[in-house]
Amino acid sequence: MDEIQAAAEALRRGKLVLMPTETVYGLAANAADSAAVAGVFQAKGRPSFNPLIAHVADLAAATRVADLDARAVALAKAFWPGPLTIVAPALPGGPVCDLARAGLDSVAVRAPAHPVAQALLKAFGGPLCAPSANRSGRPSPTTLTDAIAETGFAAAAALEGGPCAVGVESTVVSVMDGTVRLLRPGGLARERIEVVVGRLTEAENDAMRSPGRLVRHYAPQSKLRLDAQAPLPGEAYLAFGPWPEGPMVFNLSPASDLNEAAQRLFSTLRAADSLAPLAIAVAPIPGWGLGEAINDRLRRAAGFIG
Ligand code: AMP
Ligand code: MG
User: Fold this and answer.
1) CA nearest neighbour of 127 among 21, 215, 33
2) What's the pTM value of the predicted model, to 2 decimals?
3) In the CATH hierarchy, which fold is given to the domain comprising 224-302?
4) Are the beta carbons of 227 and 282 closer than 8 angstroms?
5) Which residue of 118, 122, 182, 262 lies most exposed, with the fewest beta carbons within 10 A?
6) What is the mean pLDDT of residues 183-199?
């Protein structure tokens, strides 16, 4: 039996699997199995009011989970498989268990593009809850090694998928009552979504934005100092754009490419953290494209929001 089939079999038996996606590595469980889903919350130390994303193979599978209106379908057709999560009303009697939805009558769905995730979803044949494989509050893993270090103890199988191509979590939008709201910036730039559905509505408050946004997130051990034009003595420096090399200097993208910076963000935070610096100073990052998601993660890691 090949690795994918063995992992699908483990999921059917209620076990957890480390799964690569194009955004970050996930800790996957059968979304219909509340005992398995409870295992995910426990392994991550994740508060149970923070609902999980149900991963599906494609739009057809998503329509068996959520009530997708015309705009949701247009978004799925434009961007799936890919780094966009759609929150929509859950279908009554649908497969995603209450615990995974944190008791809400909505559900978050996404079709990941990574070929290993696609193969696992097809072999398993149902939705998988797969939040980032880090322990709650820590930077997300973007390599299998980092995923194993975080929650490998809880997984029955771990699938190698190489370093994640996108590097930050999916963009989350809700599509309900005819309105498309941005709940979380992420690996699909706002500008690309607005081409399809027009100007996004801002969520009115953080609780509405999405339940999981209330907790400090993505944080390394070291303190972060944002918008730093240069490091102070003893600080590690996360540069963006041309910057001289140095023993405590990490460059998110020497070419000032925001996609590359997103892809390298979490692994670079981990690498800087491992030097145990006085603090990690981070260069200013522009706010357009994937810069919106990068700045969101950095502000949360610094403890400025949530
Ligand atoms: P994570 O699994 O850490 O990438 O987080 C998933 C994100 O989607 C969190 O911010 C959740 O709060 C959000 N989310 C998942 N399901 C829902 C839902 N039904 N309504 C609103 N936000 C959701
Ligand atoms: Mg996460």
Assistant:
1) 33
2) 0.94
3) Rossmann fold (3.40.50)
4) yes
5) 122
6) 97
